[in-house]
Specification:
41% helix; Undecaprenyl pyrophosphate synthetase; alpha/beta; single chain; binds 3-methylbut-3-enyl trihydrogen diphosphate; 6-stranded parallel β-sheet; binds magnesium ion
């Protein structure tokens, strides 16, 4: 059986709103507790010697939510990645990279994200990609445009083009392909998240709402991954 070492785990952290509703709290309270669950989850990944984690926090489609909720979600990086919180990231050797479109988010949010990126750029224990205003289609459009430009300015020919050129110009250019995708909250879909980076990922869907996703759930997901035979298009080994 082929078990590839788990190097990159990606999360679609879903269920914040329903978690809050269940206890008669506003949806934003669910987001607060959910976003506070990011750091402990990174520590769990680090304990398991996982080198890359990606967290889907705000999609290019989430702008369609009510204004108050969008404002709240745009505000959370200022708290979760404040100077004080950054010290914890640096102490643990966590490098933070923001993946997503940078020109639509409010300037204070952009500053908070770029600040933690700069201050953790030499951290080398684990890399965490925070996806904010991220969508796979937008990422691909962007990457194609760069490649088309290279072709039209004759830096590259069409014949030379390979899929590698697209990957090299994506927000995720410093991370390997995803090994395991975990989506909390019970929905079974990808929601325009890292479509190309998930090409061979193992998919894991769990009912647990994101704010309730803790060490026990994490271990069950990892064990599930370790029980899968990853053949990458090959065939099963002969018994
Ligand atoms: C995920 O939780 C939060 C975001 C990443 C925006 P939701 O807000 O989607 O929670 P539900 O699905 O409504 O419960
Ligand atoms: Mg949802």
């Amino acid at each position: 059986m082929l078990i590839k070492k788990l190097e990159h785990i990606a999360f679609i952290l879903d269920g914040n709103g329903r978690w809050a509703k269940k206890q008669n709290k506003p949806r934003t309270y669910g987001h607060k507790i959910g976003m506070e669950n990011i750091f402990p989850t990174i520590l769990l990944a680090k304990e398991h010697d996982i080198k890359f984690v990606t967290m889907f926090c705000f999609s290019t489609e989430n702008w369609n939510r009510p204004k108050d909720e969008v404002n709240y979600l745009m505000d959370f990086p200022k708290d979760v990645f404040s100077k004080k919180q950054q010290e914890k990231y640096i102490k643990e050797g966590i490098r933070v990279i923001w993946i997503g479109r940078r020109d639509k988010v409010p300037s204070k949010t952009r500053e908070a994200l770029e600040d933690i990126e700069n201050n953790t750029k030499d951290c080398d224990q684990i890399t965490v990609q925070i996806a904010i205003d991220y969508g796979s289609f937008e990422e691909m459009e962007n990457s194609f445009k760069i490649v088309f430009n290279d072709i039209s300015s004759k830096k590259m020919t069409i014949e030379d083009f390979t899929i590698k050129n697209l990957f090299e110009n994506m927000y995720t250019k410093t991370s390997p392909q995803v090994d395991l995708l975990i989506r909390t909250g019970g929905e079974k879909r990808l929601s325009n998240f890292m479509l190309m980076q998930l090409a061979y990922a193992e998919l894991y869907f769990v009912e647990t709402y994101w704010p309730d996703f803790k060490e026990k759930d994490f271990k069950i997901a990892i064990n599930d991954y370790n029980s899968r035979d990853r053949r990458f298009g090959g065939i099963k080994d002969e018994e």
